[in-house]
Amino acid sequence: MTDMFSIRDKNALLIKDGTETRFAGNQEWYSTERKRLSGCGPTTCSAMMWYLAQTHAGCAPLSPFDGSDRQGFTRLMEDVWHYTTPGRMGLNSTERFATGAERYGAECGVPLKAHVLDVPEYLCQRPSYEQVQNLLEWAFVRDLPVAFLNFSNGALHNLDNWHWVLLVALKGGSAQMYDQGEDHMIRLEKWLRTTTLGGGFVVLQPAAEERQAPATA
């Protein structure tokens, strides 16, 4: 039987939107058209900050707002935007995501360490699925959600191109993702084999908890 690895409290990422409940926010909540069009990265980063603020000791300052409803979470999204601001091509770099998130954490008084695994465009340069799996399992065991950047969805039909989503669980070759306020499963192993442009993964770990880097080599 294949083990499932998951963050411990998925309910912490449920957000009230009127009479509905959303998963980890929605970039459509941003205040301007530009932000709504390109805000998937900052929205994903905001969800990570909100989760850490609720579930990890000493991380509460990462969210000065109550992100359990749309109004409070949107205020957090607007703050995080200034640190993970998309450019003309969006937030198209794991390095920029990681650097901005670390800077946001530092200014909140909660140092963060970003762990990054890039998936290059060329197949021969890509990490193996085992390396990707190792990173995700390492993160979920430590109760850390994972940001996933996808430039090309390959053979997957439930994943948008040029897009950031939040991963919260892994079972076999499939991952559970929160995207645009919805909950989906994606075949991550299939994505790694079929994507034509690659992408990458970012884990944000409170520096106070850092003991050992993930084994992705």
Produce the secondary structure layout.
Blueprint: E1 4-6, E2 14-17, E3 20-23, H1 33-38, H2 40-55, H3 70-81, H4 94-107, E4 112-119, H5 129-141, E5 146-150, E6 163-171, E7 174-179, E8 182-187, H6 188-194, E9 199-206
Antiparallel strand pairs: 1-6, 2-3, 4-9, 5-6, 5-9, 6-7, 7-8
Structure description:
The protein is of the alpha+beta class and 217 residues long. Helix 2 packs across helix 3 (70-81). It is built from six helices and nine strands; from the N terminus they run E-E-E-H-H-H-H-E-H-E-E-E-E-H-E. Helix content is 31%, strand content 24%. The longest helix has 16 residues, at 40-55. Strands 1, 4, 5, 6, 7, 8 and 9 form a seven-stranded antiparallel sheet that branches. A two-stranded antiparallel ribbon has the order 2-3. It has one domain: Phytochelatin synthase, N-terminal domain (Cathepsin B, Chain A, Alpha-Beta Complex). It is globular. It has helices at 33-38, 40-55, 70-81, 94-107, 129-141, 188-194; strands spanning 4-6, 14-17, 20-23, 112-119, 146-150, 163-171, 174-179, 182-187, 199-206.
